[in-house]
Amino acid sequence: MSSGSFDGVNLPIIGIAAEYPAFNHDPSVLDRIIKLHYPESASLDKVRMINKYTGIEYRSSILTEDHPLMFREISPNISEISAEFSSKGVPLAVAAARKALQEAQTSVSEITHIVSTTCTNSANPGFDHLVIKELGLTQPVEKVLLHGVGCSGGLASLRTAANLALGHTARGLPARVLVIALEICSLLIRSELDSIFEQDEVRIGVTLFSDCGSSLVLSNGLGHHTTEPVYELLSWDHRLIPETEQDLRFDVVLSPQVPKLTCGSLRPSFDALIGSLPNLPPSYKKPADFDWALHPGGALILSGVEKEMKLTPEHMRASYDIYINHGNSSSTSVLAVLSRLRDKDMDGYSPGKKVKDYVVSAAFGPGITVETCMLKRNLNRAVRTSQTSGDMTPPETESEGSRSEIDDSDSEFNISTEVADCKFYSESSTMKEDSNECRQVTRPDKLASEQETYSQMPIASSAHNSVSDNLNVLIDSLDIVDLD
């Protein structure tokens, strides 16, 4: 285990962004690929069944639904996969980096370090070399490419960036560290399906994974040009669960212990974060006192963390949003969740309509590795277009004492007219029974006679939890488990 907490040392995240590709695949795409290219198989039948119960509406992909690499008779080879990763994947990383740099008000010439991660490409030189070239960096920069860390890579990269920045602080030098995560999982679907069929072994990564590039800029606060933070990195914790190497591996064959191991290990990591920050406000002690940015590894992980840490879906609203609308993009997802959490429409789903000043972020990776960190939000930087008026207004935090005073019309974001614009709403979240805890709203672009109802956040999460329960029963019967 290693932890970091440094009172009085500035480690602000001054820009953060995610870039998803243009194409979104619903579960039927995978089903078509399996039926078209593979004979009857007990393992593939189980994969198809699980595919219906993940709770994911769409998975983002660089490939069209009928792309030849997915639908030709022979699966793509490693050279073809690498070429597509470079030509279609790297631009996602470049776009995310440019967005983060723009928000950070930082030019590429100010970057001192680059920390990158991927688990879906092993080219030499690494993809970071291509990103650096495309961004136009000409000055010498220290660069690190993390491999073998899987879904924990986003936070592992942030932790590495923090230590590099602190090294410059100790030398009295400015640091601007560009963190880049890129995962193109869709290129591996056919080879994974081949393995499932040939080895008659159920692997569920093909039902969860998607494509994304994400990036952030971490500063040490030194230099003539400083930017107000989006988040302040306060502390972090990294630990390995002993004797779990075989429970979570590259080949996405997972033991039934994974949800129990990962969720059970989160509490001691959280306690370590709290213990490293004695100056936290007294109102921030229990897990439910914080907002959470959890890597959306799968339905069982999300619901398992809720139960283990005594949270509500509202605490993890951005994680659910990313999971439902984009799937699990491995190392990139947790950074996408942190970026999404800042959006104005997410505030309306916060517990008690109160946005928390402090955020716990967590991700699990192979090993099994647990990465967590504590962040403080700067809501003055988190300005987003208001859903109702189009005005640029910063959300207010719980510490400002204003959330409980918001009137109903504001807190509901005029749901009678604006619900269709919020990506969290999904047709699968329709409620068929009344609930005293949640409200139903009618989507305005549907005919009144249809009375098609769409849920607010609590209902969407309830429907998602129902999916999680169904998936739990299904997976128990198949002797497999959900992913990290």
Characterise this structure.
With 484 residues, the chain is an alpha+beta fold. It has two domains: 12-219, Peroxisomal Thiolase, Chain A, domain 1 (3-Layer(aba) Sandwich); 231-383 and 461-478, Peroxisomal Thiolase, Chain A, domain 1, CATH 3.40.47.10. The protein contains 15 helices and 16 strands. The protein has helices at residues 27-37, 42-51, 68-71, 78-104, 127-135, 153-170, 189-199, 258-275, 299-309, 317-326, 333-341, 344-347, 408-411, 415-418, 457-478, and strands spanning 2-5, 12-19, 23-25, 59-61, 113-117, 142-146, 176-184, 211-219, 231-240, 291-294, 358-365, 369-377, 384-385, 392-393, 440-442, 453-455. Strands 1, 2, 5, 6, 7, 8, 9, 10, 11 and 12 form a ten-stranded mixed beta sheet that branches. Strands 3-4 form a two-stranded antiparallel ribbon. Mean pLDDT is 80; it is low at 385-396, 399-463 and 479-484.
What is this entry, summarized?
The protein has about 475 residues and is α+β, with helices and mostly antiparallel strands. Helices cover about 35% and strands about 20% of the residues.
Give the name of the CATH superfamily of the largest domain.
Answer: Thiolase/Chalcone synthase
CATH fold name of the largest domain = Peroxisomal Thiolase, Chain A, domain 1
Work out the radius of gyration.
22 Å
Beta-strand content: 15-25%
Gross geometry: globular
Distance between the termini: 19 Å
CATH class of the largest domain: Alpha Beta
Q: What is the total tally of β strands?
A: 16
Largest sheet: 10 strands, mixed
Uncertain runs with pLDDT below 50, 5 residues or more? 385-396, 399-463, 479-484
Number of helices: 15
GO biological process, one term: polyketide biosynthetic process
Biased composition (Basic and acidic residues): 433-449
Keywords: Acyltransferase, Transferase
GO molecular function: acyltransferase activity, transferring groups other than amino-acyl groups
